[in-house]
């Protein structure tokens, strides 16, 4: 049977969209368009430009498997280098040429076997296959704090950094101690005249080395074999597997070791017993995403830095009023308060066949079979879709495996064996039931904390099984779970 000429549209030109663009070209698709709402590729790495931005996956593991990067300067990749990497890869593989920038999709409707797309600019397009690679954490969470707009100084979210505001010698308040807030405090201590870190829930903080690669090392890494050796796949996989197992079984050896390493870090790094107690976590380790930091405890003990745990009562023109009645005068307030994790492609409106509507399907919480497909949304596949993240694995790795699954569905569409593919409603229902039950056994659920992992029902919105099970599921579709309309 001759291959069908199918048109593919990819929404989003971040890490996952670039991956789709590369793989589709490799597979010989000639009609591929990426749409990107911003003016550059890069997704989260384009949006986040805050001082200290670093990825906590070891640099050489934070790349596509087919495009390693010998040039990382640090053991953990600095944000600007990650952005530069994605820009370079997108140019190298011609993905930038397939991308229409400054085009935000507002709706996608499945009509007569095709996706009809509308964009904010008024542009319209259509596609046989729609890949949603719109990212997970991209809509900033603005906290519900009284007086947010009364502040007379500069106030912005960590993902909307205002680079026109000078930082040196200023009085800066950072609200939030997730990965972002911790990195920010490490970067700003010593620069600010006074730095206050407003926290509600003490974090588990794992010490990590973040050294520099020498020029000689970077030159040597040009040899793929040298690089592969340096990457120590065995050691790396053992570490991330231990993390994933610790999430599933909070009594595992790995869980105990990680908690012990964090506590030792706290005991050894923080001299003042009062400060140490304020920094001591009260929930179980790994309940929130573990923070990896080489220098936060040092930063918070800087003479110009202070930890404020009294609780933010409200924001006033001159600063932050804490629950104990004290006014903390500030020039700059940074909201490191995280993201809305349940948005995905939205506010885009998506309607499938038989009257299916994304808002209705996701009324409770976002869901998708294996994080990839939804019933009655044929030929729409997601990368890093709902409940997709696996433990602490790099999302690049996850997306590559998800792509491997998706390309098998696409191959069937292309060969004409099927004209429409999505999961059966019962398959999603069964998957969701099993996933929810398993998720309730993870430390994200039992660990006694609140976090962005939890959906509106309080159920962890993540892959609750092992990495091995994820690989197995991605290796080959269970076709009986998929609704394939004959071509
Ligand atoms: P986050 O982990 O969701 O942390 C948000 C922080 O804001 C928490 O400390 C939270 O306190 C606080 N907060 C929220 N609302 C508040 C309010 N009304 N008043 C006071 N405090 C408030 O967000 P994030 O730090 O941006 O990180 C999100 C995720 O992005 C990470 O988990 C990670 O997956 C990714 N990320 C990774 C890296 C990295 O690679 N190292 C860096 C940055 C981000 P509570 O804990 O008390 O709720």
Q: What characteristics describe this protein?
A:
FAD/NAD(P)-binding domain, 32% helix, five-stranded parallel β-sheet, 2 domains, alpha/beta, single chain, 18% strand, 21 strands
Question: Would you write up a description of this structure?
Answer:
- The chain has 487 residues and is an alpha/beta fold.
- The protein folds into two domains: 8-139 and 340-486, FAD/NAD(P)-binding domain (3-Layer(bba) Sandwich), CATH 3.50.50; 154-204 and 251-335, 3-Layer(bba) Sandwich (FAD/NAD(P)-binding domain), CATH 3.50.50.60.
- It is built from 16 helices and 21 strands.
- It has a five-stranded parallel β-sheet. A five-stranded parallel β-sheet has the order 8-17-9-10-13, covered by helices on one side. A four-stranded mixed β-sheet has the order 6-5-4-18, with no helix packed on it.
- Strand 9 (171-175), helix 5 and strand 10 form a beta-alpha-beta unit.
- Helix 8 crosses helix 9.
- The longest helix has 21 residues, at 395-415.
- The mean pLDDT is 96.
- The structure holds NADP nicotinamide-adenine-dinucleotide phosphate.
- Residues 54-56, 137, 143-145, 175-181, 183, 200-201, 289, 312, 336-338, 450, 452 line the site of NADP nicotinamide-adenine-dinucleotide phosphate.
Distance between the termini: 11 Å
- Global outline: globular
Structural category: alpha/beta
Round the mean pLDDT to the nearest integer and report it: 96
Strands side by side in the biggest sheet = 3-2-1-7-19
CATH class of the largest domain: Alpha Beta
Low-confidence runs (pLDDT<50, min 5 residues)?
A: none
Architecture (CATH level 2) name of the largest domain: 3-Layer(bba) Sandwich
